[in-house]
Design brief:
alpha/beta, about 260 residues, 9 strands, disordered N terminus, Rossmann fold, 7 helices, globular
Length: about 260
């Protein structure tokens, strides 16, 4: 079992029933409780500051699935004093507000993009590679999700690295840009579920609609599962109901059902 790196952290006092690393057990002898923390940039070897969630029982010697979440442009920051911005949406918001079921087995890491614009393919790749080496991660169950700018960065990553690391991705209100032109049906090495509102005035739907239609026409193999969900009348900010399960089927169960072959 890999050892977690020793990092200076900023603990969170809310969510996950207030449990923090080293805060005692949960009544199950020898079993670590769920925990979460903010790890600022520069306090450890990670290439980004990030929010970390560890599921219960991580000390049992079993490798866990990894879920990496990339936020939207509004949550960009300096990776240190502005790191708490990553808690605004998606899995880190659900975790920090105590709405994340402990039965979900993921290690969830939510890095913050520093500066303007969206994360690059190289940035996403560097963080996933670091995480896979720093935690006891099942290499067949590495998953990627992002919204808006984070989904744009995730598409860029998939267009460059295809299925070298990631098994499945859930992408919300993104734009594949040149990903299809770079990799074509090789994008289908990753199971992809993409969501987009057809009234999105911030990130237009056309490029993602076309890319997903192209993927659906790819032979299998190489293509794995591709799911396109177009939300009639949906604007840009469609992600709350997708991530909390009130407006879409369980995307977390879908990812877990699509490990690498």
């Amino acid at each position: 079992m890999r050892m977690r790196p020793l990092l200076l952290v900023v603990p969170l006092l809310s969510g996950c029933a207030g449990l923090l690393p080293g805060g005692g057990d949960d009544g199950r002898t020898g079993t670590a409780p769920a925990s979460q923390r903010l790890v600022p940039l520069g306090q450890g070897s990670a290439p980004n500051g990030f929010h970390e969630y560890l599921p219960p029982g991580l000390d049992d010697g079993r490798a866990r699935p990894l879920l990496v979440f990339w936020h939207g442009v509004g949550e960009n920051g300096d990776g240190t004093t502005e790191l708490s911005r990553v808690l605004a949406n998606g899995p880190p918001m659900l975790i920090s507000s105590g709405r994340w079921p402990e039965a979900r087995p993921f290690i969830v890491l939510s890095p913050q993009h520093v500066g303007g614009g969206c994360p690059s393919a190289a940035e996403v790749h560097a963080f996933i590679g670091w995480a896979a080496s720093a935690y006891d991660v099942d290499p067949r169950r590495i998953f990627l999700t992002g919204l808006s700018c984070g989904a744009i960065g995730a598409w860029s990553y998939l267009g460059t690295y295809t299925g070298s690391e990631v098994a499945a991705a859930v992408l919300i209100a993104g734009d594949p840009g040149g990903a299809w032109g770079r990799s074509g049906c090789a994008l289908g090495q990753v199971a992809i579920w993409a969501f987009h509102g057809d009234a999105d005035g911030t990130v237009g739907i056309a490029n993602e609609r076309t890319a997903m239609a192209n993927l659906a026409a790819c032979p299998s193999p190489p293509a794995r599962d591709s799911v396109w969900t177009e939300i009639p009348g949906g604007g840009h900010g469609i992600w709350p109901g997708i991530y909390d399960g009130t407006a879409a089927p369980d995307v977390y169960a879908w990812m877990l059902a699509h490990p690498k072959p």
